[in-house]
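Case study.
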Amino acid sequence: MKSFVGIIFCIFLILPIKIFATDLKWATYCESTDYKRTPRYNETIQFCKLLAENSQIIAYKEFGISPQRRSLPLLIMDKDRYFTAEQAHQAGKAILMIQACIHPGEPEGKDAGLILFRNLGILGRDTSLLRHVTVIFIPIFNVDGHERFGHYNRINQNGPEEMGWRTTAQNLNLNRDFMKADAPEMQAWLRLFNYWNPDFFIDTHTTDGADYQYALTYSLETGPNTDLFLGQYLQKHYIPAMEMYMAEKGYKVFPYVNFRQWHDPRSGLYSLPASAMLSHGYVAARNRPGLLIETHMLKPYKIRVMSTLELLQFTLKHLNDNYRDYLQINHQADTYTSSAEFRKQILKFNFTVSNTDSVMVNFEGYDYKIEESDLTGGKWFIYLPQAKVFRLPNFNKAIAQDSVLLPNYYIIPPEWTEIIRRLQLHGIKMEFLNQDTTLEVELYRLSNPQWSNFSFEGRNRLTVKTEKFIERRLYPAGSAIVSLEQPNARIIALLLEPLSSDSFLSWGFFNTVLEQKEYAETYVMESIARQMIQQQPELLVQFQAWKEQNPQMAKDQWIQLNWFYRQTPYFDQNLNKYPIGRISH
Ligand SMILES: [Zn+2]
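After joint prediction, the assembly is written out as follows.
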C-alpha cells in the first residue's frame, strides 16, 4: 500500500511533467525554433485554427480578402465566449485590439500574440485577466507582403532568419493608408475597427535607426491629436505604471524617438503627435488609446518577442483592472467630440515641433564616434560597445501649423462618389438630399497648388492655399450631408478640410477641380482683350500691375491673354472651387 506521503510525492512528480508536456505540445512555431524563425502564413493560420478548435474561449474568424486572395485572419478571445462585438459590448467588456505584421518584416507581435493566446486560451494561465476584457488579435495584417518571404527583407535586423516584406502586393505601405484607405486590406480593417469599436489598440513594429540600450520604444498619443481627458488619463495612469512594470521585467523602454539629426543622439531628440495616416495617430483621432510598439532591430529576436509579450500582458492586465475607467473615458470622449462644444473649439492640425522648447532627459544609448567617410565624404557613425547615458534635450512641444473653425455640416455633391464611399468606410454617418436643393454654403477657393514632384504611396501630395467665400449653390438630389455631431468629427474634418495634410485633397482626390478645361485661342483673345480695355480702361492698369507682380508669367503670351479670358463670363466659374460646402448654421 502506498503511503499518503508517497501519493503526494507522485502527484508532485507527475504534475510538472504533465504541464511541461502540454506546454511542449502547444509550443508555437517560433518557440519550437528557439526564436530563430517565424511562421509563414499557412503555418500561422493553421495554429490559429488549432487554438480555436481546442479552446473554449478562442474563436477564429476572417475579416477580408487581400488582392492576392488570402484571407485576413482574426483571433478573438473571450472567457464568456462573447465572440461578437454586440455580445462583448452588451456584457460591458472592454475590447483590446492587437495588430501584428502591418509590416511583415517586423513580426514580433505575431509571435508574441500567439504565445499570449496559447497561454490564456489553452494553458489556462492568467485567465482572470480576461474577466472584463475581450481580446481581438490580427496575427498578420499585410498577408500578401508577409508571403514575400526571404532572408533579405530587413538589412541588419537581428532575426528572425526570414521574414515578410514591408508593403502589400500593390506596393502600398498600410501604415500610411489609414486615412485615404486605398488598399483593399485597409478597407477591410476599417470595417473591422468600426464593428468592434475597440477600447484600446496596439500596433506592433520593429524600428531601425541609431543604436541604443532600449529593447523597446513606444508611442502613446496623449495630445493634442486626441481627446484631452483621454490623453491626460493615459499620461497619468497608463504610462508610469507601464514603464515601471517593464523595468521590473528587465526591459528598458523609452518613448519612441527621432533624432534631430539622423543617427546622431547628441543632436537631441524630438517627438511629434502622430499623423492620422499612421495606425496610432488614426486611432487617437478616433478617441481611443493607440499604442505603437517599436522593438529595436539590433536586439535578439527572442528579447524583442518577449518584451512585446510583456507589454501586451501589461496592457491586458491594466485594461482589465481599469476597464470601467476606459469605457467611461472613451464614451465621454465620443460624446464630447460629437458636441457643439467641440465644434466651438478651433481644430488644430499639421503639427510640427517647436525649435526652442525642450526638456532635458536621460537617454540610455551607446557611445559612438563619427568619422568622415573616405568613400562618400559623409559622416560615418560608428557605435561602440560601451553603454552610455546621454543628457539630451527632447523637443516635444507640438505646434499646429494650421487650424480651422469647424462647421456643423459638410455637404458633398453626389458626383464625388468615391469621397462619399470612403467616408462611409470610416464609419461616418451621413444623410442624402432627396431633392435638388439650393443652399447657402461656405466654400473654399483654392490657389497656389503645389504638387510634390515624386510619388508617395502612389500619389503626388498636394498643398494649396485657401480663401473662404459664401455662395448660394444648387446641390443635386443625392448630395451627402455629413453632420459633425458624431464621434468621428475629428476624422471628418481631417479628411475634408483642404489644408489638412491628411485630407482627400492632399492625397490628390480633387486634382480635376484645379484643371482649366476651357480656354480661348490667342488670336481670338488678342482682339477681345483690346475691346475689353476700350470698355473698361482700368483693366489695363490692373493688367500692368499683375504683370509687375508676376514677371515670369508676363513672359508668356498665352498666360497674359488667359488673364483677360479669366475676366470674361466664358471663364469656368467652378475652376479652383473646392466642391464640398460647409454649413455652420
Ligand atoms: Zn514598422
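Observations recorded in class. The pocket of zinc ion is lined by residues 103, 106, 205 (CB under 6 Å). The first strand starts at residue 58 and ends at 65. We will return to this complex in the next lecture.
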